[in-house]
Amino acid sequence: MSYQFEPGDERGALNLVDADAVRRGLASVTQAGVISLAQPIRAGAVPIAGMRTQPVHYMTRDGGDYAAGLPERPGFGFADDGIMLACHGATHLDALAHVWQDGLMYGGFSANEVTSRGAKRCGIDKAAPFVCRGLLVDAVPEGAPGLQPGTSIGVATLRTALAGHDPRPGDALLVRTGWPQLWRADPSIGTESWPGLDGDCVEWILESGFALVGADTIGVEVSPSTDPECASPLHIALIRDNGVYFLELLELEALATALAAAGRREFLLVVAPLPIHQAVGSPVTPVAVV
Asked: Cis omega before residue 47 (within 30°)?
């Protein structure tokens, strides 16, 4: 099973999020409760990969400037600030240019299209907002704080959790592992290994027509890889080969609690990436409406 889009396409599985997918998402709202799925942007608050920098927030104007004599209009002052943030250093959406294998990325485009200036093809600026139905799989056993690093989540878990929910093309699949809570309780577990989807999930994800797959971990799929021939087999099979988007480092605790209380799995998901020119990912604040 594989997705087939027009030659030269740079949107991937976003093509599946059509009017029916949007209406299905809207129809899933019953309580009008709005829940943020973003982790806080603060140095040390999020378990990001070691190669990525921690966020830096700085002020360019504040009350101290006025106290030091900065001229102000009668009674008026203002504050201003900035941030330095790795595009994959917070809750984020991967662009289709994020990964490649054997020199080729999504659509058969050469990895040479990604240079020090950014991605000429399949960058996050070629994507668009997701507005669709989300389906949550809570993979954490009852009473456990979270799954241990390296734990694989197989397709049987996904099928069982979503039995009777009939995934449709253009839907989004989110998976809660509870791993961020384990890391916050004990940062010494590190960020080199985390729980996630196993390779046997790929075919079912594609058969179901999911346009987006997300999790509360760094990389959605289990780490370390269970495939000795590929460092990130699901990234390749889903992003590179089929244009499925990955949504990573989600905050899923409140959503899981709300859906469990209502005895539901589905919700409206809204994800709007920043249109950063030629970026290979974007920080996002996904929103669930239950």
From this structure: no
CA distance 99 to 91: 18
> In the chain, count of helices (H) and strands (E)?
8, 15
How many CB atoms sit inside 10 A of residue 65's CB?
Answer: 15
How far is residue 235's CA from residue 242's CA, in Å, rounded to a whole number? 10
- In Å, how far from its chain's centre is CA 44? 19
Query: If we measure between CA atoms, which residue out of 283, 256, 200, 236 comes closest to residue 96?
Result: 236
The pTM of the full predicted model, rounded to 2 decimals, is 0.96
Each domain of the chain, given as residue ranges in start order, spans: 12-50+88-289, 53-85
Q: Which CATH architecture has domain 12-50+88-289?
A: 3-Layer(bba) Sandwich (3.50)
pLDDT tens, position by position, 2-27: 999 999 999 999 999 999 999 999 99
Nearest-angstrom CA–CA distance, 66 and 258: 45
What single DSSP character describes residue 48?
A: -
Q: Are 89 and 57 in contact (CB under 8 A)?
A: no
Buried b / exposed e along 86-124 (16+ C-beta atoms within 10 A): bbbbbbbbbbbbbbbbeeebbbebebebbeeebbebbbb
Half-sphere CA count of 283, side-chain side, radius 13 A: 14
Chain mean position to CA 124: 13
269 and 135 Cβ atoms separated by less than 8 Å: no
Q: Give the Cα separation of 262 and 255 in Å (integer).
A: 11
Are 57 and 81 within 8 A, CB to CB? Answer: yes
Q: What is the dihedral sign for C-alpha 263, 39, 166, 141?
A: negative
User: pLDDT tens-digit profile of 216-244?
Assistant: 999 999 999 988 889 899 999 999 999 99
